[in-house]
Amino acid sequence: MADMPDVRFLTVAEVADIMRVSKMTVYRLVHAGELPAVRFGRSYRVPEAAVTEALQRPIADVG
């Protein structure tokens, strides 16, 4: 078996709790390509590292 890096995947609900947003917001980020995710059946899993990276990105100016 090939060596797999230690990647922890989070559910959409877990990501929403961590980011303090709604699950719908997480789905929107995933569908917009702003948050990478893997689809397992009918559900999505987000790599924990992607959530950490997204939280460290600067916020875009709204204007």
UniProtKB/TrEMBL annotation:
InterPro entries given in the database record: DNA-bd_dom_put_sf, HTH_17, SinI_DNA-bd
Protein known as: Helix-turn-helix domain-containing protein
Domain spans labelled Helix-turn-helix: 9-57
A Pfam family annotated for this UniProt entry: HTH_17
Protein species of origin: Microbacterium aurantiacum
Stored SUPFAM superfamilies: Putative DNA-binding domain
Recorded superkingdom: Bacteria
